[in-house]
Each structure stands twice: as C-alpha cells, then as structure tokens.
Design a protein that fits this description.
The protein is of the alpha/beta class. The chain contains 7 helices and 7 strands. The N and C termini lie far apart (56 Å). The relative contact order is 0.11. The structure holds zinc ion (ZN).
Length: 196
Amino acid sequence: MGAIDELVAELARLPGIGQKTAQRLTFHLLQQSRERPERLAAALAAVAARVHACDSCGNFTEAERCTVCSDPRRDESLLCVVEEASTVMVVERSTAFKGRYLVLGGRLSPLTGVGPEQLRMTLLKQRVAEGAVREVILATNPSLEGEATATYIHQLLDGTGVRVTRLARGLPVGGDLEYIDGVTLSHALDARQEVP
Ligand SMILES: [Zn+2]
C-alpha cells in the first residue's frame, strides 16, 4: 500500500470519519507545507508515548496519577463512576463536582463481548474497600448498556455500606454524556437520586 492509501485507511478507522473525509483530510495535509503533517505526526507520537491510564482512576494522564487524583482538595468521599475519560472532561468543565472519579473504560455490552472483566470493576471495588468513599455516583450514559452497567455496579457494591446514587433523569435517553453541556450535567448531578 502506498503512503497516501495508508494514511487514508488509518484516518478512515477513526470514529465519525468515513472514506471520503479521510481522503479529503489526506489531500488537505498534502497541500500544506511539510511542517504541518510533521507536527501532526509528532503530536500523535507524543500522545502514544506519554499518555496512559491513571493508576487510581483510569483517567488519562502523563504522570503516575491524574490531576484530579493528585489534588488534595478533592473530596475523596465522593466517587463518580463514568464510562469514558472524555466524560471526566465534561464533568470537570461543569465545575459542579468536587469529588473523584473512576473511569470504567467502557460499558457492559454482551453483544460485543464486553463483560465486567474488560472494565475497571476490580479497581472500583478496591477504591471502595479502601474505606474513604461514602457515596458512589453512577454517571454512566443514559442508554440501555449504560443502565445495565449501573445496575451491575449497584449489585456489586451491595453490602459495602456505601450510598449508591444515579444521575437525575431528564438527560436525553440513549444520549451520550460526552455531548451534554455542563449546566445540564451539573443539574443532573445536584439532583442525583438514590438507586432503589
Ligand atoms: Zn486519577
């Protein structure tokens, strides 16, 4: 495969980018000065080499622990469980939440072969077992799989004595928290409800 075809194929693998857009981006890069594609390549290489999951929460970080986990002012009694690290960014932008996070790394999805072992359930149990967490806020997506994941975690934490809450209803069903604005999300956090 030639270099052009290879780049088109790589770009087309990204979410939301089809073959046509991949071609358009490739030709756009080719028309730029040599420096532009080189800068893009360097940025990609830096991310691949330096960014990894935080040891204590799964959020992306370049250090051993992410900025949230290493901030002593964060309330460690509140643990917000999200599917993806991108949701941490959304919640952080809303500035309503002062607790800590646990990034599952996906959602339960029997159809695509994602079970509890593929998610950070062990890390979650470990964080709760450490004893500082008093409330776990389930901020999984308001989708079928997100709900199933929340139900699973609720059962997983049964008997641990921690309070388990879920974001308030009113978020668009089937929606993705990644695309929800900060105000809506902070309202859903404020109005969170006890999981029955
Ligand atoms: Zn962290």
